[in-house]
């Protein structure tokens, strides 16, 4: 027997690790090596900090592996709330993983173009488009997750609503980036909405679930 409390403890450790590794690879590394609008400077930065760039690739792959484990434990936690939405959550989340992992090939290709800055920038742009595609599913999986949070009774309903808002931000932001890439203001609005997922992350990590007096347990 594995209690829901044990599953929640694992999630409270695993979820922030996943988020931190993801922020390292998706935000920190690009901020250190990419010089917007300057292909030559970007190539020079990557050449001088190649180990960091490669660490970003490893971080991106590790993020997806950690994500799979996080989704599995979320399924274990929420399957008794509603098994159907829990299964949809897993399905949508898992679709994003091969997209995101294969997308790292563009970074490997970029490393082979350090002497051709324009071509290097092309492959980095290709990687960015791959992230846009993966982000569609990063948004869609949040809708069943938000439903489960909302109806579980273990978390405030507003947290579920925040996750829905995050899902809207990711999904519509990705579609806008594909259809209307020049609409920077709209893209900024949708990007801001994705912080709804951060609200869930912080609540889960800091506060955790609200438990009934009786211990709740389920089979592993």
| Content-based structural category | mainly alpha
- Distinct helical segment count: 10
Share of helical residues = over 70%
Largest sheet: 2 strands, antiparallel
Molecular shape: elongated
- Estimated radius of gyration: 19 Å
Give average pLDDT, whole number: 94
Beta-strand portion reads under 5%
Order of helices and strands: EHHHHHHHHHHE
Strand order of the largest sheet: 1-2
Secondary structure tally: strands: 2
Low-pLDDT runs: 216-220
Q: Supply the number of structural domains.
A: 1
- Roughly how many Å apart are the termini? 5 Å
Overview features:
10 helices; 220 residues; disordered C terminus; elongated; mainly alpha; 80% helix; single chain; two-stranded antiparallel sheet
Description:
The chain has one domain. Helix 5 (105-111) packs antiparallel against helix 6 and helix 8 runs antiparallel to helix 10. It has a two-stranded antiparallel ribbon with strand order 1-2. The N and C termini lie close together (5 Å). By secondary structure, it is mostly helical. The model is unreliable at 216-220 (pLDDT under 50). The protein contains ten helices and two strands.
Write the layout of secondary structure elements.
Blueprint lengths: L1 E2 H30 L5 H10 L1 H29 L4 H20 L2 H7 L5 H24 L1 H11 L4 H23 L4 H10 L1 H13 L9 E2 L2
Antiparallel strand pairs: 1-2
Helix pairs in contact: 1-3, 1-10, 2-3, 2-6, 3-4, 4-6, 4-7, 5-6, 6-8, 7-8, 8-9, 8-10
Produce a short descriptive summary.
The chain is an all-alpha fold and 220 residues long. Helices cover 80% and strands 2% of the residues. Mean pLDDT is 94; it is low at 216-220.
């Amino acid at each position: 027997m594995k209690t829901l409390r044990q599953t929640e403890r694992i999630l409270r450790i695993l979820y922030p690790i996943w988020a931190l590794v993801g922020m390292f690879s998706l935000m920190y590394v690009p901020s250190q090596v990419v010089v917007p609008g300057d292909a030559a400077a970007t190539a020079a930065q990557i050449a001088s900090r190649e180990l960091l760039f490669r660490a970003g690739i490893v971080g991106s792959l590790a993020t997806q592996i950690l994500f799979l484990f996080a989704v599995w434990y979320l399924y274990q936690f929420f399957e008794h709330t509603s098994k159907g939405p829990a299964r949809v959550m897993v399905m949508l989340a898992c679709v994003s993983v091969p997209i995101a992992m294969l997308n790292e090939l563009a970074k490997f290709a970029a490393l082979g173009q350090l002497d051709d800055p324009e071509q290097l920038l092309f492959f980095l742009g290709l990687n960015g488009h791959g992230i846009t595609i993966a982000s569609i599913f990063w948004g869609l999986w949040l809708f069943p997750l938000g439903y489960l949070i909302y109806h579980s009774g273990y978390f405030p309903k507003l947290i579920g609503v925040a996750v829905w808002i995050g899902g809207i931000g990711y999904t519509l932001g990705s579609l806008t980036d594909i259809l209307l890439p020049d609409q920077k203001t709209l893209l900024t609005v949708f990007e801001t909405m994705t912080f709804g997922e951060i609200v869930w992350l912080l609540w889960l990590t800091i506060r955790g679930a609200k438990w009934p007096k009786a211990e709740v347990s389920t089979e592993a």
